C-alpha cells in the first residue's frame, strides 16, 4: 500500500506551534526539545513537500495560509537546518513557493516575501563576523547552512528577474508605463546591499542595459553609485557594454572613474610608458570614449586637471597616452557604427586634426612635420583667433599628440630637415601665449642654440662645459626658449655621437639647481617615457633618463 504523503492542517498547526515555541533555540530547554523532535519534523517536512510540490504557489498558500511563517521560523533555527536533510527539504519547499514567472498577485507576494527573507538574512549581523563566542559552534553551523541556503535562492531569484526584465512580458502581466518604471527602481534598490555577490552580476548587467519609457533615470542613484564604486575597487566584474551604459546614464559615476584614474596614475609614479598605457586601458575609459558624450566629459576633466596643475607633466602624459588608446579604439570600431572624428573634436581645426592623427613615418616625417607647422602657423596668425579659449584649444590639440613634438626635436638633430618649421612648432608649444613678435624672438634665440648644438653633434669627445657654452652664448630673453633649449639638449645627449657619454654628469648638473630642475620637468614627459622604452643607448643613457625628475 502506498504511503500517504498528504499533510493535514492539524499536523501543520502542530509544527507551526512548535516552531513558534522554539524560536531560534536560544535556551537549553528549547534546544533539547528541538533535538527530540528533529526526526519527526524531518518526516513531516518530507510529507509536506510531497503535498505541495505539484501545486503552484497560489494554491499552496490558499491551502496553507501560514506556510510562510512555518518555513521562515524553521529556516532561522540552526538545529533544524543542521539536521540530516532538513535543510535540503526546506529548500525544496521554498522552491515550490517561488514562481519564476508570477502570474497573479498571490505569486507576486510570495516572491516578494522570499526576496525580503533572503535579503534580511544576508544582511544579518552574524554574517559580518567570523568570531566564535560561547555559542560559536551554533553560530558557525547556522552561518554555514544559511549561506548555502540563501545563495541557492539568490541564484534562483536572479534568474527569474533577468528573465522578467528581458522577456516579452513584464512580470507576466503586461505591466507598462509608470508601474514598469517603478518596478525597475524597486529591483535596483533590492540589489544595493548585495552588489558584490558574484551571483548577482547577470542582474546588474541586465538592469544597466534596461531602459524604460520615462525620460528620467529609472534606476536608483544609490544603485548606480554602488555599482560604480564596486567596479572601480575591482570588487565586481562587468562587461564593457554594461560599464559603458552605467557611465552614459550616470554622469557622477563617469566623473568619479576619470578622477580615480588620474589619482591612481599620479600616485604610482611609474617610469614605464607601457604601465601607464596598461592602467589607462584597464580603466575602460578609452574604449568607453568611443561614445562622444563620454569622450567630451573625460576630455573636459583632463583639461581642468591640466590647468589646475599648471601643466603638470604627469597629467600631460596621461592625456597623451589616453589619446593614443582612444584613437586605436576608434580605428578598431565597426565602421557601420563609427562616429566621425568631428563628433569628438568639434572645436578643433579638422585638417590639423587629420594631420596629427597620422602615424609618424621615418620616410616622410620631415615633410609632414613641416606641413603641420605651416598649417598651425597659419591658424595661429589668423586674425579671427583672438580669445584665450581659441588659442588654448589649438595648443591642447597639439599637446594631445605629443609624440609629434618628440619627433620634431629628434628630426632637428638627426635628419637634414629645414629647422625653421620644426623650431616654430616647438616654440609655439612652449610659448603658445606669445605674440608674433615675441615668438619671432624665441625663434631667433632657439635657432642660435640649435646651430651651436649641431656644430657639436658629431664630436665624440665632449664636456659639460661645451654644452653650457652652447647655451650660454645666446642671450635668452624669452622664457619659452629655455624650455625649448632643454628639450633640444636632452635629445642631443641621447642621439649625438658623444652626448650619452656625459649625459649623467650633465643631468646631475642641471638638476642641481632649482631653475634647471624646473626646465627638465617642463619637458613633454612623453619624451622621457618614449626614450626609456627605445633602449637605443647604453646603461648610462638609461641612468640619464631615470635621473630626470618626475
Automatic annotation (TrEMBL):
InterPro entries cross-referenced by the UniProt entry: FANCC (IPR000686)
GO BP: cellular response to oxidative stress; interstrand cross-link repair; nucleotide-excision repair
A GO term from the CC aspect: Fanconi anaemia nuclear complex
One of the Pfam families matching this protein, by short name: Fanconi_C
Protein name: FANCC protein
Lineage: Eukaryota, Metazoa, Chordata, Craniata, Vertebrata
Amino acid at each position: 500500500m502506498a504511503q500517504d504523503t498528504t499533510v493535514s492542517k492539524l499536523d501543520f498547526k502542530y509544527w507551526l506551534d512548535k516552531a513558534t515555541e522554539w524560536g531560534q533555540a536560544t535556551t537549553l530547554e528549547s534546544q533539547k526539545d528541538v533535538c527530540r523532535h528533529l526526526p519527526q519534523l524531518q518526516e513531516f517536512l518530507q510529507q509536506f513537500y510531497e503535498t505541495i510540490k505539484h501545486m503552484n504557489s497560489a494554491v499552496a498558500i490558499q491551502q496553507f495560509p501560514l506556510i510562510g511563517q512555518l518555513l521562515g521560523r524553521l529556516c532561522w533555527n540552526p538545529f533544524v537546518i543542521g539536521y540530516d536533510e532538513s535543510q535540503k527539504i526546506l529548500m525544496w519547499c521554498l522552491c515550490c513557493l517561488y514562481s519564476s514567472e508570477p502570474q497573479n498577485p498571490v505569486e507576486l507576494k510570495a516572491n516578494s516575501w522570499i526576496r525580503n527573507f533572503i535579503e534580511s538574512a544576508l544582511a544579518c549581523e552574524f554574517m559580518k563576523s567570523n568570531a566564535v563566542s560561547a555559542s560559536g559552534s551554533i553560530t558557525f553551523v547556522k552561518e554555514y547552512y544559511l549561506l548555502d541556503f540563501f545563495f541557492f535562492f539568490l541564484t534562483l531569484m536572479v534568474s527569474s528577474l533577468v528573465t522578467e526584465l528581458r522577456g516579452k512580458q513584464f512580470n507576466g502581466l503586461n505591466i507598462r508605463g509608470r508601474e514598469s518604471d517603478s518596478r525597475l527602481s524597486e529591483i535596483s534598490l533590492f540589489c544595493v546591499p548585495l552588489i558584490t555577490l558574484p551571483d548577482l552580476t547577470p542582474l546588474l548587467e541586465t538592469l544597466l542595459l534596461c531602459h524604460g519609457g520615462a525620460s528620467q533615470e529609472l534606476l536608483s542613484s544609490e544603485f548606480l553609485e554602488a555599482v560604480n564604486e564596486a567596479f572601480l575597487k575591482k570588487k565586481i566584474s562587468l562587461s564593457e557594454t554594461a560599464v559603458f551604459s552605467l557611465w552614459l546614464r550616470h554622469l557622477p559615476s563617469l566623473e568619479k572613474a576619470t578622477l580615480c584614474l588620474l589619482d591612481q596614475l599620479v600616485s604610482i609614479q611609474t617610469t614605464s610608458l607601457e604601465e601607464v598605457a596598461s592602467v589607462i586601458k584597464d580603466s575602460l575609459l578609452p574604449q568607453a570614449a568611443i561614445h562622444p558624450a563620454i569622450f567630451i566629459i573625460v576630455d573636459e576633466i583632463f583639461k581642468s586637471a591640466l590647468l589646475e596643475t599648471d601643466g603638470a607633466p604627469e597629467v600631460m602624459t596621461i592625456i597623451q597616452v589616453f589619446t593614443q588608446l582612444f584613437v586605436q579604439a576608434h580605428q578598431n570600431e565597426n565602421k557601420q557604427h563609427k562616429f566621425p572624428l568631428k563628433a569628438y573634436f568639434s572645436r578643433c581645426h579638422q585638417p590639423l586634426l587629420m594631420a596629427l592623427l597620422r602615424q609618424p613615418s621615418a620616410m616622410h616625417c620631415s615633410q609632414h612635420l613641416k606641413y603641420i607647422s605651416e598649417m598651425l602657423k597659419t591658424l595661429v596668425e589668423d586674425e579671427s583667433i583672438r580669445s584665450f579659449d581659441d588659442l588654448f584649444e589649438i595648443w591642447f590639440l597639439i599637446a594631445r599628440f605629443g609624440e609629434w613634438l618628440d619627433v620634431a626635436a629628434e628630426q632637428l638633430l638627426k635628419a637634414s630637415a629645414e629647422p625653421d618649421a620644426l623650431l616654430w612648432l616647438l616654440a609655439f608649444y612652449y610659448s603658445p601665449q606669445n605674440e608674433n613678435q615675441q615668438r619671432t624672438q624665441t625663434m631667433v634665440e632657439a635657432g642660435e642654440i640649435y646651430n651651436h648644438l649641431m656644430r657639436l653633434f658629431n664630436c665624440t669627445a665632449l664636456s659639460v662645459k661645451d654644452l653650457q657654452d652652447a647655451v650660454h652664448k645666446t642671450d635668452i630673453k624669452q622664457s619659452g626658449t629655455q624650455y625649448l633649449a632643454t628639450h633640444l639638449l636632452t635629445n642631443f645627449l641621447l642621439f649625438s655621437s658623444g652626448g650619452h657619454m656625459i649625459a649623467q654628469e650633465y643631468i646631475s648638473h642641471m638638476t642641481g639647481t632649482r631653475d634647471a630642475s624646473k626646465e627638465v620637468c617642463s619637458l613633454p614627459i612623453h619624451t622621457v617615457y618614449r626614450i626609456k622604452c627605445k633602449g637605443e643607448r647604453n646603461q648610462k643613457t638609461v641612468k640619464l633618463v631615470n635621473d630626470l625628475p618626475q
